[in-house]
Each structure stands twice: as structure tokens, then as C-alpha cells.
Specification:
- This protein has about 300 residues and is α/β, with parallel strands linked by helices.
- The chain has a domain of about 140 residues: 2-Layer Sandwich (Nucleotidyltransferase, domain 5), CATH 3.30.420.
- About 30% of the residues lie in helices and about 20% in strands.
- It has ten helices and eleven strands.
- The strands form three sheets. Strands 3-2-1-4-7 form a five-stranded mixed sheet. A four-stranded mixed sheet has the order 10-9-8-11, with helices on both faces.
- The longest helix has 18 residues.
């Protein structure tokens, strides 16, 4: 802990996903002092999901050293959650990958527990802002970010500021329909980008291809010890061999390119393979956002 500066206090960053919650303590310079990960109960009652978030936040004190000195230094809590949500009120509306929460006042509930300022935003929005400040988008005025995980998310930064739009859902690119005759998405619409290019969708497509011809030599089958029950992580590790043989993921880049083009036109694009790390920089939501890229 001595190697990190805490002179201006620290902020808790929480990233809520469909299967896990990642949380971290972050200082003013964006350095991660402590981190933790706990399971998320997405299909239970709202209170159980809230309990998982509280558990993740509480466990940060025990992983940081020296423990007694950390809690008084916490200035605020930034939470990233799948949308749609309202970034002004902190209400999680109806995310397909978090069915436990419907019109759930997440910011207010967490503020009650910790009596600290709490900001809730879309997970991809926060990751986009992090990339604009510290990552691949640094120095660019406009940044488009695509997040690939249990779902597909996207974030847009214009002139160093998150673009929320009128309803807060301006960058909900995963639920842009590209095939009105396609499979039904968790949001209820047919042919959304998420139903084709999310992690589970990639794994399902690879599974179908491999099951049709599992006798051929395959890097994915080797990673799965001969089983056709593969994960998107396995597909990612073996993508060099998978694309020419099976075409399982060859179209995903084109799909995501469509997503970027539909939203922004020419801009700096960033694909987030490990998008959850962006949530550790959620403290940037509490700081003054620069008016132009020259201030980054």
C-alpha cells in the first residue's frame, strides 16, 4: 500500500456483470490499490443482488493494507452496471443480463449503507471514459468503445465527456437490431448485435460448428479436452486456427464494425476484451471532465 498515493483519498469502483462483481480501491492517479471479485446472483431477488454488491465493497477493506486506515479515506463509490439505466437517478431499469433488478434504485440503496456519494453509470460508458483518460483513446476528442462480455455494450465519449443522450441509453449498441428475422434477444427484440457477437453467442456458434464435425483436428477441441462444450475464452485463445477452419468468429469483427459505424462514423474505436477493468476507474465520474482532448 505504501507504493500508492492516498493523499487525496480513494474511491471504490464496482463493476457488476451477469455472473460476477469486480471491485477495486482506486486513488487519484487511477492506480488500483486493492481489488476483489465475488459472484453475482443475477436471477434471484433484488435484495440478494444488492447483498452481493455490498459484500464486494466490504471485502475491499480486508484485502487492503493497513486495513484500519482505508475506510476513512474512501470519498465516493462509482458503480458500473449493464443497462439500460438512468445515470442521473442511479436507477437500474431493465437489463437483460440482470433480471433480478427492475427499476431498482441502486445508487440510493448503496448510499444508504455507506453514507457516501454514489454514482451509477453504464459499464461500457465508464470503460470508454477510462480509455479516453488513460488508455487507447488518450489524446483523441471522440472515442467509441465496444465491450464484449456476457452481453455487448458500447460507450461514446465526445470532447472528453460521456454521451448519454436524452434517456441515458445513447450508446446501448448491443441492442441495435441488425437482422429483424434473427434470434430473439434477451431484451425481446429480434436480431440484436448481442445475440450474434456476445461471449455466450460466440461460444454457442463454435459449439454448433464443432458438434457438426468434431472428428477434425481443432485447437478449440484441444483446449476443451475433446469436449464440444466450449467457452468464448477458448474460442479467443484459439481464434487463429478457428477462423479459417470453421468460420465461427470470423463475422464478429464485421458485426462490431457495423456497431461503431452506426453510432459514430469516424472516431477512435477501442474493443474491450477485458472490459471490466475499466470500471476500476469509475472515480473519474466524480472528477471534472475535460472540455477538450487537449486537457487529457
Amino acid at each position: 500500500m505504501n507504493q500508492f498515493s492516498t493523499r487525496d483519498g480513494v474511491v471504490v469502483g464496482v463493476d457488476i456483470g451477469g455472473t460476477k462483481i469486480a471491485a477495486g480501491l482506486v486513488n487519484h492517479d487511477g492506480e488500483i490499490i486493492s481489488r476483489t471479485r465475488v459472484p453475482m446472483v443475477a436471477n434471484g431477488e433484488a435484495a440478494i443482488g444488492l447483498s452481493a454488491v455490498i459484500s464486494a465493497i466490504d471485502s475491499l477493506s480486508s484485502t487492503a493494507t493497513p486495513e484500519p486506515k482505508i475506510r476513512p479515506l474512501i470519498r465516493a463509490i462509482g458503480i458500473c452496471s449493464p443497462g439500460p439505466l438512468d445515470p442521473i437517478t442511479g436507477v437500474v431499469i431493465n437489463p437483460p443480463n440482470l433480471p433480478c433488478w427492475r427499476n431498482f434504485p441502486l445508487a440510493a440503496e448503496i448510499a444508504k449503507v455507506y453514507r457516501l456519494p454514489v454514482k451509477v453509470d453504464n459499464d461500457a460508458n465508464a470503460a470508454a471514459l477510462a480509455e479516453a483518460r488513460w488508455g487507447a483513446g488518450r489524446g483523441y476528442r471522440n472515442v467509441f468503445y465496444a465491450a464484449i462480455g456476457t452481453g455487448i455494450g458500447s460507450g461514446i465519449v465526445f470532447d472528453g465527456r460521456i454521451h448519454h443522450g436524452r434517456t441515458g441509453a445513447a450508446a446501448e449498441g448491443g441492442h441495435l437490431s441488425i437482422d429483424y428475422r434473427g434470434p430473439i434477444c434477451g431484451c425481446g427484440k429480434p436480431g440484436c448485435i448481442e445475440v450474434f457477437a456476445s461471449g455466450p453467442a460466440i461460444a454457442k456458434r463454435a459449439h454448433t460448428k464443432l458438434a457438426a464435425d468434431h472428428t477434425r483436428r481443432s485447437t478449440i477441441l484441444e483446449l476443451a479436452n475433446g469436449s464440444v462444450d466450449v467457452t468464448s475464452e477458448m474460442v479467443g485463445k484459439a481464434h487463429v486456427g478457428v477462423i479459417p477452419r470453421y468460420g465461427s468468429v470470423a463475422g464478429d469483427g464485421r458485426i462490431l464494425g457495423t456497431l461503431a459505424g452506426k453510432h459514430c462514423g469516424p472516431a477512435r474505436a477501442r474493443r474491450g476484451d477485458h472490459w471490466w477493468r475499466g470500471s476500476f476507474y469509475a472515480h473519474s465520474l466524480f472528477r471534472r471532465t475535460p472540455k477538450s482532448a487537449s486537457e487529457l
